[in-house]
């Protein structure tokens, strides 16, 4: 299984990420850099 894509989901207070794999599995996560979530979303 390999990661095929990572997409940021930016809300007012949080940066979430959705991770896609070549096996069709989709996972969700949360960024831990609280003060700069908009900057991190651009880098993703």
Automatic annotation (TrEMBL):
This is Mandelate racemase/muconate lactonizing enzyme N-terminal domain-containing protein.
């Amino acid at each position: 299984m390999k990661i095929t894509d990572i997409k940021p989901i930016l809300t007012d207070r949080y940066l979430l990420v959705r991770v896609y794999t070549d096996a069709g599995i989709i996972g969700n996560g949360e960024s831990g850099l609280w003060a700069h979530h908009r900057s991190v979303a651009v880098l993703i």
